[in-house]
Design the sequence.
């Protein structure tokens, strides 16, 4: 059994998040106190040495970002905690904030000291009221103890933290859009450079880090970079929190060293597939990521290996899919999400993704031709290369990865007008197996269009012209006498 | 609480808090994150307090924590007895609290049918 290693979740589930004394008892704020005794450069160097990479998705070296922000000129600087967490299926950041808010506050204060900022802002979606509440409690407690606010621990470093509520638009998690949103403008992205570290909030140097990234900071300062590097892989040290969801038995949060394999997470920690069905694919990285098939289950997970597979680490959502999943339909789900969430500023993303979605709809409804597949792939690449921000640049990933690994399923939809998972309505039919049907009439009674005919205690039949494929009969039949063909 | 003015003051407060802690009491941890609450863990929490009082059990503290990670088995309750490995119970709905209190806390036996195999392992 692979061991979970809890660095980020060191206290979550163990302490009362609304009681700062519980946090202190676990050596809380000692890392901040220690950092205040060091030079700013030394704090940044420790983070650099630890090789910690940003947990918000991109995996950019955190120490490097801190260094840029430290070196940026300006008497006013900001530390922003990105708690937007927009990926469907992801809830890691929420759990950290709800379970151990001080670990994030302490990380922010250390960051503030390191780069020379006096102000921190937590950008969090309004849909996370409990996390917001616990953060507020945490901030006020920390202030009472002199651990935030003026002259922290008697030093000449002062640092205050505010909370800003976001409306929960996915693109607002993108750092430039997030900055505009805090400034009171529409959450639209802009070109980089300039990077926020040089010109961010109100054009001042701004360090933006993800919740989980910040929760890693205090243990690194306290225990040192080498301690941190004993976990994980050389290029991706430390641990990663994953939100395991979908068709897996043990849905929940896991924190494992980087380099743990997908198989270990899904089959050991996750307990395998629900209902003992067959594994089909695992989706990582949210809408920016992709689907990974069975043959790559033994891949050790880190930023680079997932990217090589055409997916992404993303923020850590991991959605397990069983054999009853249609991969074209999955691509359609994510594309629909991106289309809904695109800010609309650039043409490739605004128009390109809508066209891609239309292609997928054509395929799933059985109206596509083989030429459409080539068109789809070339358009996907245009959107990828031509979009303004990370949302558009990664939007085609779900299509490209499912097409790479499940090309035959796309072709079946087109050539055989068949959806092997039985998901795409236009391509399936419900039929009654006469030998198994007892004539109990249950299916006929639930059918909303009266498409099922037959007498009591005699096998029934389905009139295909009337059937709207709602599946009510299928889920009602107690004798497994209805099949999808 | 007067504001802490130095590393030394913080260290001594931390030590004081560690020492002050009653090492002999039983601590029950109820996971009250969003996932837990939507599965009814706040009711479980209230019921635990009630049953513990009804049974006149002493030296027990019930605390609210965030999510433990076992979302599939919410509401979860972890029982920490001094000198023993923590025992993690899952699907402890309000109705099951009575059994848990009686079996584990009154009779001192493990309530096998509520247990989650893997207990919560700490890293540091
Ligand atoms: C469309 C889009 C959405 C994003 N959403 C989030 C998010 O919800 N949370 C987050 O931390 N980062 C998100 N990011 C990444 C941020 O832009 C940024 O890279 C990150 O917050 C930096 O923190 P880190 O270096 O600690 O990972 C998103 C990026 C894009 C392109
Ligand atoms: S929203 Fe950023 S490219 Fe479309």
Sequence:
């Amino acid at each position: 059994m692979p061991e979970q290693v809890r660095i980020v979740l060191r206290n979550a589930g163990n302490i009362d998040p609304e009681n700062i004394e519980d946090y202190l008892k676990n050596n809380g704020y000692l890392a901040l106190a220690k950092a205040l005794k060091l030079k700013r450069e030394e704090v940044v160097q420790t983070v650099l040495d630890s090789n910690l990479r940003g947990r918000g998705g991109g995996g950019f070296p955190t120490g490097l970002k801190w260094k840029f922000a430290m070196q940026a000129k300006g008497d006013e600087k900001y530390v922003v905690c990105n708690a937007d967490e927009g990926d469907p299926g992801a809830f890691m950041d929420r759990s950290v904030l709800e379970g151990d808010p001080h670990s994030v506050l302490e990380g922010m204060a250390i960051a503030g000291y390191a780069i020379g900022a006096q102000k921190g802002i937590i950008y969090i979606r309004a849909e996370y009221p409990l996390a917001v509440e616990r953060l507020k409690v945490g901030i006020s407690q920390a202030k009472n103890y002199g651990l935030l606010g003026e002259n922290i621990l008697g030093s000449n470093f002062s640092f205050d933290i505010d909370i800003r509520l976001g409306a929960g638009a996915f693109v607002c998690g993108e750092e430039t859009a997030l900055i505009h949103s805090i400034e009171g403008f529409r959450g639209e992205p802009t070109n980089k450079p300039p990077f926020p570290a040089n010109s961010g909030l109100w054009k001042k140097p701004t360090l933006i880090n993800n919740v989980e990234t910040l929760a890693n900071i205090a243990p690194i300062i306290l225990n040192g970079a080498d301690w941190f590097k004993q976990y994980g892989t050389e290029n991706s040290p430390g641990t990663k929190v994953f939100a395991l969801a979908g068709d897996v038995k043990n849905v929940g949060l896991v924190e494992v060293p980087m380099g743990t394999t997908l198989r270990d997470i899904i089959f050991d920690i996750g307990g395998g597939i629900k209902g003992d069905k067959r594994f089909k694919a695992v989706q990582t990285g949210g809408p920016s990521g992709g689907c990974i098939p069975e043959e790559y289950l033994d891949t050790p997970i880190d930023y680079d290996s997932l990217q090589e597979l055409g997916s992404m680490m993303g923020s850590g959502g991991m959605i397990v899919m069983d054999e009853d999943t249609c991969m074209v339909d999955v691509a359609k789900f994510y594309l629909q999400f991106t289309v809904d969430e695109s800010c609309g500023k650039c043409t490739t993303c605004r128009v390109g993704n809508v066209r891609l979605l239309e292609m997928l709809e054509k395929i799933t409804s059985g109206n596509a031709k083989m030429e459409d597949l080539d068109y789809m792939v070339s358009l996907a690449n245009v959107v990828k290369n031509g979009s303004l921000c990370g949302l558009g640049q990664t939007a085609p990933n779900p299509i490209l990865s499912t097409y790479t690994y499940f090309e035959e399923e796309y072709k079946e939809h087109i050539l055989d007008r068949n959806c092997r998972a039985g998901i795409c309505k236009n391509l399936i039919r419900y039929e009654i197996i006469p030998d198994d049907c007892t004539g109990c009439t249950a299916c006929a009674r639930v059918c909303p269009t009266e498409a099922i005919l037959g007498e009591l205690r005699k096998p029934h039949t389905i009139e295909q012209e009337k059937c709207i494929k709602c599946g009510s009969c299928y889920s009602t039949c107690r004798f497994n006498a209805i099949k999808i063909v | 609480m007067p504001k802490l003015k130095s590393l030394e003051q913080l260290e001594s407060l931390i030590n004081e808090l560690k020492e002050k802690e009653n090492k002999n009491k039983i601590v029950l941890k109820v996971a009250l994150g969003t996932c837990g609450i939507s599965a009814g863990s706040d009711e479980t929490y209230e019921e635990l307090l009630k049953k513990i009082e009804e049974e006149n059990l002493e030296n027990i503290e019930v605390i609210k924590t965030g999510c433990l990670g076992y979302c599939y088995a919410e509401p979860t309750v972890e029982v920490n007895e001094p000198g023993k490995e923590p025992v993690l119970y899952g699907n402890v709905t309000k109705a099951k609290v009575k059994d848990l209190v009686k079996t584990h806390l009154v009779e001192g036996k493990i309530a096998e049918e509520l247990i989650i195999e893997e207990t919560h392992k700490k890293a540091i």
